[in-house]
């Protein structure tokens, strides 16, 4: 799993460990959080490991997978969750900002899936790839063009990989709406956001975890994007 140090990512990694998986995850800038996360995961799943990896660089993804293969002999599930997010009003977007968002999100997810596919297509059992996208892929957020196109691109890659890796590898995407960061942290303009959500609350990490667990149980769903947004996309 990439991005296990994220606010939702950590909960996903813990839930996967709780399902009996050994977890091999990447972190990038948050070493302390990574160490704390690994410690918690190891209470449940002692064989788990982590490695530092900048997913915007293909060479680092390849190294992370080499390390994975040295330590584990099968890959049941790959979750591409690493993501960069910040606002980028169109007139001010720099090349550096574009590269940072698109390389981390879109390029990083592509090469993570490519490496996972190399292992999975040679396995004789059903395995799964899950990408993490965003309902903003379906909205027109003018201040977030590189981020939203990167997530829309991942959704399309999800369909392409699903078709090319069938029937042994199921590839799906979870697209959260706004998820509360938890631990009492405020979400900017929370009231305004809740007003746009038919189910009248922000999402929680648990809403995403439940969707992931559903996908782990499903054997007849591939190439789908599941929006977990309290109905925010209903128009
Ligand atoms: N939380 C939400 O409200 C929300 C809403 C819509 C979609 N999503 C999507 O759901 C997924 C999980 O969200 P989250 O809340 O866990 O995200 P998050 O808190 O923003 O965490 C981002 C994760 O990506 C990693 N990352 C960032 N740049 C990286 C790089 N260059 N190389 C490798 N890893 C990198 C971070 O690692 P370090 O911290 O170690 O640097 C961290 O683990 C993401 O794909 C996100 O886009 C979340």
Question: What is the topological layout?
Answer:
Layout: H1 7-18, E1 24-27, H2 31-44, E2 49-52, H3 58-71, E3 77-80, H4 95-120, E4 127-132, H5 145-165, E5 169-176, H6 190-195, H7 205-217, E6 225-228
Parallel strand pairs: 1-2, 3-4, 4-5, 5-6
The structure holds NADP nicotinamide-adenine-dinucleotide phosphate.
Strand order of the biggest β-sheet: 3-4-5-6
Largest sheet: number of strands, sense, barrel closure: 4 strands, parallel
Gyration radius from CA atoms, angstroms: 17 Å
Distance between the termini: 33 Å
Q: What count of helical segments does DSSP give?
A: 7
* CATH fold assignment: Rossmann fold
Low-confidence stretches: none
Q: What percent of residues are in strands?
A: 5-15%
Tell me the overall shape.
globular
* Helix/strand order: HEHEHEHEHEHHE
Quickly give the CATH architecture.
3-Layer(aba) Sandwich
Domain module tally: 1
Count of strand segments: 6
Level of helix content?
40-55%
Task: Report the average pLDDT across residues.
Answer: 97
Protein structure class:
alpha/beta
Briefly summarize what is shown:
By secondary structure, this protein is α/β, with parallel strands linked by helices.
Task: Describe this structure as you would to a colleague.
The chain has 235 residues and is α/β, with parallel strands linked by helices. The protein has one domain (7-228): NAD(P)-binding Rossmann-like Domain (Rossmann fold, 3-Layer(aba) Sandwich). The chain is built from seven helices and six strands; from the N terminus they run H-E-H-E-H-E-H-E-H-E-H-H-E. The strands form two sheets. Strands 3-4-5-6 form a four-stranded parallel β-sheet, with helices on both faces. NADP nicotinamide-adenine-dinucleotide phosphate (NAP) binds at residues 2-3, 5-9, 26-30, 34, 53-56, 81-85, 104, 132, 134, 176, 178-179.
